[in-house]
Amino acid sequence: MPSINEGYFDELINAPVSTLTEGLPLNDLINNRETEFEVRADSDDDESVTKLHSAESYFNFNDLESEINLSLIDDDEEDGIGSPFDKYRKKMTKLRGDGKIMKFVSKQGVGCTVPENCLVYVRYKAYVEYQEIPFDSTFMQSNGTGNLSIPLNLGKGEVVPGLHEAILSMRKGEKAEFLIHPDLAYGKMGCPPRIPEEATILFIVEIDRFVDCGDIYSNFDNLTMEERLQYSNIYPNAKAHYELGNDYFKKEKYRTAVTRPTRS
Question: Where in this chain does the record put each PPIase FKBP-type domain (predicted)?
Fold first, then answer.
């Protein structure tokens, strides 16, 4: 099992603290209202914060070997193509008309495309340009315990819109590369320090399998009692719980599995 760097948590505890110029209205936070804040320019050490939040500070470098993508730091202008992401675009096709999602299939999948609102098991890596180590990946999400797929619930907004749309274009067993425009990723502000402002994101995604349980996350709970008693509404919801229960059983999550039939 990969080991975590010694002293990481000590560094985390003693990390620089960002100080706001003014306090935040508590009512805005409680009521989930938008608010603005400003960080004092002298309140943190950008270099130390960036280092602390980097993958290298958490995982040993040898553990990250399979995650490293050296093509993202190769900026050879002599070939006439340009930046690393320009080279990726050269082999990709538009997934949508505005070109904000570009796709290249490196391994063909089988069967139908991933349905909306399903539970999908994926392996992925997410990179920004000129950074050879991903800012996020399946490996990191599993705390470095292996290259197992992880579940994503497409019915609950667990991923950025561009990745959601990209996954819906894929099939079981497919592996593909996507370049996603900031409008469909982390927006104009990004997510500092790991994701810069207006960053285009490279996602490398592989679909392990998916469970079509979309009707669980449909608007069944919002139906009237009379509508809930209609067979046309009951059957899809019951079938979705059944499929999800079977999937949990196969993964030996028996306690979770047995609750699904009762919910249906």
Answer: 117-211
